[in-house]
Amino acid sequence: GIQVEQSPPDLILQEGANSTLRCNFSDSVNNLQWFHQNPWGQLINLFYIPSGTKQNGRLSATTVATERYSLLYISSSQTTDSGVYFCAVNTYSNSGYALNFGKGTSLLVTP
Amino acid sequence: SQTIHQWPATLVQPVGSPLSLECTVEGTSNPNLYWYRQAAGRGLQLLFYSVGIGQISSEVPQNLSASRPQDRQFILSSKKLLLSDSGFYLCAWSHAGGSPFFGPGTRLTVL
């Protein structure tokens, strides 16, 4: 099956710093998504980004499908950005839509 | 708007006991439904998905099973729990080909 690798696995930032999270995938995908899992376990959709660049406030994402990677940028980080960031790609099974997740980047933003 | 519910929120069960986790979706019809498990260490693993009532696809062989008795109800079951079944179970829904939206999860501890 498709492999999804995220880096770095762990990241500690001081409030106000910027960061870049990377997601590499091993095969062509139909779509790619970024999620944030907060400390209570809730998974929040951040971006649905099969290609190109999108921005939402202090977060932005870029996917270069031809080179099989995606980047998530966090600017002016805040303590509420802490949590785990997942990249997930989808492949179409016989009759469904299945997401393959990376292992995540665990981010801690300190005051 | 659509909402997704899971219960219970937490569960502690002895080894060998049965399991039933429930997920319901409101505000949409004929959704795709998914069960994911997140073991300690972050990665999410797709267990089952369903594109319609009574239609279940299993991604990983295990002692768990899933059922979809109604359009917006998805149930995860086991006849006899193992220690390795401990984890965080997430239900999700999506439109066909669309982004999944995750429920709040059930934290299961098998002792």
Sum this structure up briefly:
Chain A is mostly beta strands and 111 residues long. In chain A, 0% of the residues lie in helices and 59% in strands. In chain B, the strands form 2 sheets. In chain B, strands 2, 4, 5, 6, 9, 10 and 11 form a 7-stranded mixed beta sheet that branches.
Write structural notes for this entry.
The complex is a heterodimer of chains A (111) and B (111). With 111 residues, chain A is mainly beta. Helix content of chain A is 0%, strand content 59%. Chain A has no helices and eleven strands. Chain A has strands spanning 4-7, 10-14, 19-25, 31-37, 43-48, 52-56, 59-64, 69-74, 83-91, 98-101, 105-110. In chain A, strands 2, 4, 5, 9, 10 and 11 form a six-stranded mixed beta sheet that branches. Chain A has a five-stranded antiparallel beta sheet with strand order 1-3-8-7-6, with no helix packed on it. Chain A is globular. The relative contact order of chain A is 0.33. The model of chain A has no long low-confidence stretch (mean pLDDT 91). Chain B is mainly β. In chain B, 0% of the residues lie in helices and 59% in strands. Chain B is built from no helices and eleven strands. In chain B, strand 4 (32-38) and strand 5 (44-52) form a beta hairpin. Chain B is globular and about 35 Å long.
Spell out the blueprint of helices and strands.
The complex is a heterodimer of chains A (111) and B (111).
Chain A: E1 4-7, E2 10-14, E3 19-25, E4 31-37, E5 43-48, E6 52-56, E7 59-64, E8 69-74, E9 83-91, E10 98-101, E11 105-110
Parallel strand pairs in A: 2-11
Antiparallel strand pairs in A: 1-3, 3-8, 4-5, 4-9, 6-7, 7-8, 9-10, 9-11
Chain B: E1 3-7, E2 10-13, E3 19-26, E4 32-38, E5 44-52, E6 55-58, E7 64-70, E8 73-78, E9 87-94, E10 101-102, E11 106-110
Parallel strand pairs in B: 2-11
Antiparallel strand pairs in B: 1-3, 3-8, 4-5, 4-9, 5-6, 7-8, 9-10, 9-11
